[in-house]
Amino acid sequence: MHILIIGAAGMVGRKLANQLAKDGHLGGKVITKATLHDVVEPTAPVGAQFSSTLMASDFSLPGEAAKLVAGRPDVIFHLAAIVSGEAEQNFDLGYRINLHGTMELFAAIRAVGDGYRPRVVFTSSIAVYGAPFPDAIGDEFFTTPLTSYGTQKAIGELLLADYSRKGFFDGIGIRLPTICVRPGKPNKAASGFFSNIIREPLAGQEAVLPVSESVRHWHASPRSAVGFLMHAATLDLNLVGPRRNLAMPGLSVTVGEQIEALRKVAGEKVVARIRREPDPAIIKIVDGWATRLDAKRATSLGFKAETSFEEIIRVHIDDELGGKIA
Amino acid sequence: MHILIIGAAGMVGRKLANQLAKDGHLGGKVITKATLHDVVEPTAPVGAQFSSTLMASDFSLPGEAAKLVAGRPDVIFHLAAIVSGEAEQNFDLGYRINLHGTMELFAAIRAVGDGYRPRVVFTSSIAVYGAPFPDAIGDEFFTTPLTSYGTQKAIGELLLADYSRKGFFDGIGIRLPTICVRPGKPNKAASGFFSNIIREPLAGQEAVLPVSESVRHWHASPRSAVGFLMHAATLDLNLVGPRRNLAMPGLSVTVGEQIEALRKVAGEKVVARIRREPDPAIIKIVDGWATRLDAKRATSLGFKAETSFEEIIRVHIDDELGGKIA
Predict the structure, then answer these.
(1) Is B41 part of any domain?
(2) Are A80 and A6 within 8 A, CB to CB?
(3) Nearest-neighbour CA in chain B from A131: distance (Å)
(4) What is this model's ipTM?
(5) Does A158 contact B at CB distance below 8 Å?
(6) Would you name the residues of B annotated as active-site residues?
(7) Chain segment A118-137, per-residue pLDDT in tens
(8) CA-CA 20 to 30 A from B221: which of A222, A241, A306, B46?
(9) Rounded distance, CA A315 to CA A221, Å?
């Protein structure tokens, strides 16, 4: 089995490649080859039994997507994206990568022809939704994004469903919750604080909380994100039918509940490292975000996420901190 | 005021141009100029007080959309499309015109710059929905099209909303019901019979009914379609907000109710010209179509359609047959 990961240098892409290397198989089939692609060259996963081909290019440029699928990968994970904040600031760049890149990829898969029909797993986002929302967003709620990023993801979903319906590939789109706790350095994404207020205090650093504790949001751990991707890659899509885009399960918690969970797991000394510093710009952005989903379909199809924020924190401590708190 | 109609040679485009010519103004402003565009050269509306520029081109080709908006029209009606059946048979053609053409147009409007911000009225369709449906499709029901045409329209809607949000133009998308009674010759569209079984008998001709009388569908007259377009062109979009795509009101009737209305308006002799000839292919297609919408938002915003099928038939007799039945 040959696997292609587009966006393999990103946080989720790296974790996915490492998990595949650790497992050595996917859906009962031995992985013989991985092609790892990003705009910068990804690193090969450690300890893999399969061979890894590393590629760097802008897949939105003419001819580049064809190179990615020329080796006829059996499973394609499409994780590449300009993130929300950057796509909002740079309209042309966001559309070029997130929309035209995806269109080029889908067209390139179709162009292979000759019975080639890979599984395509497309990472979408809860950014496809736009406020106002019902108490919980159901599986049949419409997509009225309030960002260019969300628009580009919603369009990718529509294309994925149509290409799948036409038999050009076998696609499934998964709407990821906000991934928390993101490892690494604090970044300037508007959603960054959801992770920062857990990760930094656990590492002995101060973190800034720019919104009120009453802010509610929809989370899953990086480990769950990798689990979603691998389940999507192996799921019987006859069970899914023509509605190929699924909201993933997650956990709806307030910032206050996040902090309370941190207190339980790591104690008051760690919680004291969170500094309140309200930021009206971030408050306004976060106000338009989904707070709670009712991901019935995905749950019934076997997708699983954490059920408490303490569990999400423990996943971070296990996977990123070697089990230790500063 | 300068008006551009793209798709001006089509049935609705011609009726719209004629109505604008008759009125001479739109939303209280005098129309001084109309640009009428299609892939074949449209005809100028009769009796217009404004000057009409007639253009024929493939607006999806590089540079062509820019020519359409170079004269900075104040209102742009975008009616151009490869119809559902053809877009399904010819995947590349449908995507080129319905998706890339629309993208080229939106990009060309943005590229004018210099404060140019026209009203853009985009004709979408109930084909953005895909079965299974609730009893009545509400304003927040999701778009999971089961045709490439529906996919292309749903994508156009998303782009329209994002370009409007970014201030590149002031757009509104309207999801038209099936237009009934369509004037002209019977065509091979799967939806053709909804009109054929009324139009042909009224003209003294036999018509074929390929589905059962229990089939329910969502209709509005050509006159209502023109009314929707003109209302969309003049509506205060602050009332609409960021959710710029609206399902239009219509009438939900069964084929049996259509026939009963025809009997009341035109008598048994006319109804007897309908011949039952079930067509499994058409039955299957129609089975996936929307049967009833609950178009609350559009109705509250002042969009109006017929409230009985007899009224729809009388509109046809008045507008197309000079009030006479064969």
Answers:
(1) yes
(2) yes
(3) 10
(4) 0.97
(5) yes
(6) 149
(7) 999 999 999 999 999 999 99
(8) B46
(9) 7
